[in-house]
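Section 5.1 Outputs to date
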Amino acid sequence: MKQQRVPPSEAAKEGEYSIGEATAAALVAAEAARVTVRNLSLLSELDEVCALYNEIWRPEPRNPPVTTELLRAMVQAGNYVAGALSEGALVGACIGFFAPPLAASLHSHIAGVSGQAQARGVGFALKLHQRAWALEHSATAIEWTFDPLIRRNAFFNLTKLAAVSTQYLPNFYGRMGDQINVGDDSDRLLITWPLRATSVARACSGDPHEPNLAALLDAGAVIGLDRDRAGWPVKGTADGRTVLLAVPADVERLRGEDPRCAQAWRRAVKQTLEPLLRAGGEVRGFVREGWYVVDRQRRATG
């Protein structure tokens, strides 16, 4: 079921998106994904979250993503633990905790969706529920990290949710032994989601701004990182106001089929994207075909 667009109110157009409208958008997204999203607190529910995450990441036994005890403590302390249920079964979960400045920002630590519920919009429904919950608790922003080489996550975070990024975190978690990261460096982009920004309100209503590659190039964007015919990275130029950086189509598959090429992409993205952000640039979006849009002159979010 395709999400129906929820027209933003006049307040939303001015950047003052109400809690009621955020809740309504979350409910529409959940209905489109055919799930119910709600907060979880019972021990049996928290056990299910741990089991779901273990199923998704298949970690080393000594290093699970979360434990029931940790989730129990987070819930008791007033933090965010929620799940998406389909016909009573948990198919997705998301957890977050408050970060400085006190209660003004939520750090979304981990979110995952079962393989059986992929491509239904469950992740979108979870994030919109998290946004509405955060607004109800007076937070103004949510932050989280993701692997900059994973193309679908870049599009989801930066275009579908209209988040932005200004910080590259090299090998943030150290080497990770789960079956998704398979020992690769855990480089991450730190995402900021300004919950009341007009761009975010429109994205959550089903009307995101999707960058157009041809239009960006016509407007003077330069290619800082390209790909050759064999799928390897090729350095370009960063001498422009807007810089486009390519990523591989499927780095998770590439890690298994051609580890050398995957490592080349890791190095190339780090060597081009990290300096741009460190110098004051901002990732403002992601082109569906696989390109970061980096604005070298950081702007106010709106």
